[in-house]
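Entry 12.
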Amino acid sequence: MSKAMRQMPDETGRVSVARGEAVRDLASDEACGPPQEHPGTGLAMSTAGIGGLVEAALTRQNLQAAWRRVKANKGAAGVDGLDIEQTARMLQTSWPCIRDDLLAGCYRPSPVRKVMIPKPDGSQRELGIPTVLDRLIQQALLQVLQPLIDPSFSKHSHGFRPGRRAHDAVKAARGYVQSGKRVVVDVDLAKFFDRVNHDILIDRLKRRIDDAGVIRLTRAYLNAGIMDGAAVSERHMGTPQGGPLSPLLANVLLDEVDKALEARGYSFARYADDCNVYVGSTKAGERVMALLRKLYAGLRLQINEAKSAVASAFGRKFLGYELWVAKGREVKCAVADKVLDNFKARIRQLTRRSGGRSLEQVVEQLRPYMLGWKAYFGLAQTPGVWRKLDEWLRHRLRAIQLRHWKRPQTIYRELKALGATEDAARQVAGNCHRWWRNSAGALNTVLTIAYFDRLGVPRLS
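Predicted 3D structure (tokens):
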């Protein structure tokens, strides 16, 4: 890949820093500096030469930064079957022709590969996995477009934007409820990414980007087919989740609704297609819901009535969190009950007592899931819940260890080696076949919290 990059003209400038969830954990070498931006409008005029913004996206610095991001994100191969390293070797010889096609406006993206991802509720989410080459091109284009477009988005939009994340949306929601707006208009869009109207999206993009090359290339990505097995289907609507450009395009489309709510002075928080509006009464909430139905209908989008409602802000799930009132009428965050159930189901799966894995191997599989879950739900203000989950998890791990030792003689010997008293070792060894009931009480004095800390088991509390 580095050889291919050396074949690219070294154009000056265009390096700045982009941070946020649209390009996760970006390093400072991300190239995303904008051409001239018209103040207050987010409209970018083509000032980068004949090739415009596409040419700016294809500079060596920008492409090198995009390649680092694509490589860091890893990900599966697309319909061409080429992984990261295979794509790098291909580009060493093919890049000049690909670049020429991009600048001439005749590049045609490959179809995306259809992948179905199971959701906790038993349904499935459709992802479209572009080829590594198309992910590289989309990422390079994103790094040029995002600094131009993002400043014009609503401050109430938190999803897939530099410097913003889901925690910001949850904090905003908590603040609105604390201020006395205890009724929420909770709106969920039905299959949003599958129902995006291409013509409407391109029209909204044209209002922000005056560059024919970008519009043409974006349209080509929207129209790229989707491969399911050996069959390729044309796509006339929707923007497949899985490509770097999809989140930015979603925000371009939904910003129109944000601005309409802003103009009316409503308090709301949006993260991707999840939008919550906070009002002071049910009657006001019904008016907002009617407004949202009208606004989304104008974009050819449909509200999922089964998941949307005008209701009390307490008990409604938003981005995995729910709100509750503590002493002193302070509004706090908690993990939603359904999310906790899903978490416990996953922990049970990772800590099942069959499978022939050592306790160290179980912890190795458990650790990344728990660390990621803890990082996302770190806003929850429920220390009692965390302590109970920690105790439950350690109980399961102790049962695994007993199952591995299995025989009374082995249990007795291993516990004594760990420093157990004679009484504790005999008591646990005497109940060797009751894995769950025997994994508390005397065993806790040997397989302590510190023992699991040394194994690397993360604590939630």
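Annotation: The CA atoms of residues 428 and 441 lie 9 Å apart. The radius of gyration is 26 Å.
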